[in-house]
């Protein structure tokens, strides 16, 4: 029978292709969030070079990007990430709690809360700032269309939300913060699932008057599209956004990649790693590199999540869990 | 056919062919259809190729020979090479059973075959995550035995097979039903075995319909986005198919490369369309020949 023999050949051929691609090289999978694409593209190449020089071993680092919460969900469902570099601690907490792939104290294992680089939340507006947006208050005005991703799936969106909340709290008082944030979300015409989706909506599709986004994402959009189309607006107060990194213990032990995975994350703290982060508009944590790139990052009054919200677990429970503040605001 | 219309007041009678509309209506309808086609089909198609080559042939070639793109193309072809034969076997078996035999639960089987058409592709992907994912029913067992299904090639193949199940079966069922069972009955009476009957009578009768279904199935297998996106894990150079790769490139502001890969997919669609038309043409010839016999 022609068909059966063709079937047999094709199955044989494809199984060869599949097994061939699996056996090829030593690989490491870094599951990351949306805006780090360009950062890790350069960093991975640098690390591969460093590892080759030091250990005479070739390593290929594979990348997966998407909304931070979605990526965490994939790891929980079995995506074999050797390291996760996500947008916020709570997404890695979820991996530790639900799938138990790493210990719950993972954040104490690396220095600076396992956060090699930080960022903050700023605004991107269209050139000339036609709606005159200067601070968080302007986002709550009627007639201003605000673009921000969905906090249920995006880490960046949660930082956006918390920064707005703290501003509302300091400006209008504890009990008015919720209404203030509610007014901002009333102005949101579309909630994308990840930060990059929101950037594309704002920049490429031309929707909205202001994009609330990571500082690095805003600078990247300026670089890609030129400053003749967009400009950044620095709010009077914002949050220190800490995107943490972790080795996924169960995966590296199974795949025998612990040593290389740990070296990979340590390399983020090295001078070279910090320099690459700064080049891609992430705020370096090394004082030396921070000083070198000081003029690149605007001075903003910053608060951190532990002081303002009592840490991620608390913030998640009060604001983002099912039926919590965000649901109350958005479903209203 | 003609209709005679008599107007009672004037008493005038005139005849109008029922199938003939005034010429302006015809022109308007044709124009409308053409305008619609141009706006929603030709312009986007041309824009794909325009955007792909906007930055020059070098950029285009660089985009489609990039290792990640090559791996995406390979994976897409691999998935189609597994999904289409599987559905070929399943489609023939299902259509054969439904068209030639009577049995209990036949309607249920027909409904089940249609299920992938009525379920959203995202749900099609999620069901596999729920079954094979680490937190799913079989997940822990699979992990223990180091079998990877979700976020690996088998998961992508499964999801693709699921969404493309109806294409071949749906194509064959009406064809086989129309052909009836007389020729097969004659073969059996003359002493042919079941396998002989199938190879010498049934298969030749359905070959054009089968090819047509396989082509449609292949087009969908290569183009599927939703279900595959859920089970892929989006690992570049490893579990990214062509449609997923297009999305990644687009999200990286790499528009020329995104459209370059998209143009390959569009090209694939055009080849499919050409093949389909050719087969329809052959099919028609085939049928007229049979009619002459």
Automatic annotation (TrEMBL), chain A:
GO terms for cellular component: periplasmic space. The keyword Transport applies. InterPro entries: Thiosulph/SO4-bd (IPR005669). Residues 1-24 form the signal peptide. Keywords: Periplasm, Signal, Transport. It is found in: Periplasm. GO terms for biological process: sulfate transmembrane transport. One of its GO terms (molecular function) is molecular carrier activity. Pfam families: SBP_bac_11 (PF13531). The keyword Metal-binding does not apply. Belongs to the prokaryotic sulfate-binding protein family. This is Sulfate transport system substrate-binding protein.
UniProtKB/TrEMBL annotation, chain B:
Residues 73-276 form the ABC transmembrane type-1 domain. One of its GO terms (molecular function) is ABC-type sulfate transporter activity. It is found in: Cell inner membrane. Keywords: Cell inner membrane, Cell membrane, Membrane, Sulfate transport, Transmembrane, Transmembrane helix, Transport. It holds the Pfam family BPD_transp_1. It is a multi-pass membrane protein. CDD domains: TM_PBP2 (cd06261). Part of the ABC transporter complex CysAWTP (TC 3.A.1.6.1) involved in sulfate/thiosulfate import. Probably responsible for the translocation of the substrate across the membrane. The complex is composed of two ATP-binding proteins (CysA), two transmembrane proteins (CysT and CysW) and a solute-binding protein (CysP). This is Sulfate transport system permease protein CysW. It comes from Nitrosomonas ureae.
């Amino acid at each position: 029978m022609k068909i059966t023999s063709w079937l047999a050949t094709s199955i044989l051929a494809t199984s060869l292709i599949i097994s061939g691609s699996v056996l090829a090289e030593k690989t490491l999978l870094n599951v990351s969030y949306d805006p780090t694409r360009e950062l890790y593209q350069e960093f991975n190449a640098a690390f591969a070079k460093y590892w080759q020089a030091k250990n005479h071993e070739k390593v290929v680092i594979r990348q997966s990007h998407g909304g931070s919460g979605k990526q965490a969900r994939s790891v929980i469902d079995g995506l074999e990430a050797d390291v996760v570099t996500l947008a916020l601690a709570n997404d890695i907490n979820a991996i530790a709690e639900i799938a138990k792939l790493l210990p719950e104290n993972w954040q104490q294992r690396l220095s600076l809360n396992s956060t090699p680089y930080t960022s903050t939340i700023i605004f991107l507006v269209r050139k000339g700032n036609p709606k005159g947006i200067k601070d968080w208050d302007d986002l709550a005005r009627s007639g201003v269309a605000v673009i921000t991703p969905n906090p249920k799936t995006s880490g960046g969106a949660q930082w956006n939300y918390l920064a707005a909340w703290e501003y509302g709290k300091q400006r209008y008082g504890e009990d008015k913060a919720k209404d203030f944030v509610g007014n901002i979300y009333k102005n949101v015409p579309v909630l994308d699932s990840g930060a990059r989706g929101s950037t594309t909506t704002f920049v490429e599709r031309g929707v909205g008057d202001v994009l609330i986004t990571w500082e690095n994402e805003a600078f990247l959009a300026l670089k890609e599209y030129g400053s003749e189309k967009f400009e950044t607006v620095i709010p009077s107060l914002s949050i220190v956004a800490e995107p943490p990194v972790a080795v996924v213990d169960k995966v590296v032990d199974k795949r025998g990649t612990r040593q290389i995975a740990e070296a990979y994350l340590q390399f983020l703290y090295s001078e070279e790693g910090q320099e690459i982060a700064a080049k891609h508009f992430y705020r370096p944590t090394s004082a030396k590199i921070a000083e070198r790139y000081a003029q690149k990052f605007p001075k903003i009054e910053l608060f951190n999540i532990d002081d303002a919200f009592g840490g991620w677990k608390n913030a998640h429970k009060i604001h983002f869990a099912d039926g919590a503040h965000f649901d109350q605001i958005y479903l209203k | 056919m003609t209709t005679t219309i008599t107007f009672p007041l004037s008493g005038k009678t005139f005849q109008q062919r029922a199938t003939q509309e005034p010429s302006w209506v015809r022109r308007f309808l044709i124009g409308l259809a053409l305008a619609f086609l141009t706006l929603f089909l030709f312009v986007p198609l041309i824009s794909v190729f325009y955007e792909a080559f906007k930055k020059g042939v070098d950029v285009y070639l660089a985009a489609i020979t990039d290792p990640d793109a090559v791996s995406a193309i390979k994976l897409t072809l691999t998935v189609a090479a597994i999904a289409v034969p599987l559905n070929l076997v399943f489609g023939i078996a299902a259509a054969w059973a439904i068209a030639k035999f009577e049995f209990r639960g036949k309607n249920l089987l027909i409904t089940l075959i249609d299920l992938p058409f009525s379920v959203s592709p995202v749900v099609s992907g999620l069901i596999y995550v729920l079954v094979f994912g680490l937190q799913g029913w079989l997940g822990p067992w699979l992990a223990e035995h180091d079998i990877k299904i979700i976020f690996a090639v088998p998961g992508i193949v499964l999801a693709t097979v699921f969404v493309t199940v109806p294409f071949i079966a749906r194509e064959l069922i009406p064809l086989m039903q129309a052909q009836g069972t007389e020729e097969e009955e004659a073969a059996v009476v003359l002493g042919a075995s079941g396998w002989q009957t199938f190879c010498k009578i049934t298969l030749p009768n359905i070959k054009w319909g089968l090819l047509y279904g396989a082509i449609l199935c292949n087009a969908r297998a290569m183009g599927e986005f939703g279900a595959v996106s859920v089970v892929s894990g989006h690992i570049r150079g490893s579990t990214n198919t062509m449609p997923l790769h297009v999305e990644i490139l687009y999200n990286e502001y790499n528009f020329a490369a995104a459209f370059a890969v998209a143009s390959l997919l569009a090209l694939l669609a055009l080849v499919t369309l050409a093949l389909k038309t050719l087969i329809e043409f052959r099919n028609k010839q085939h049928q007229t020949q049979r009619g002459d016999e």
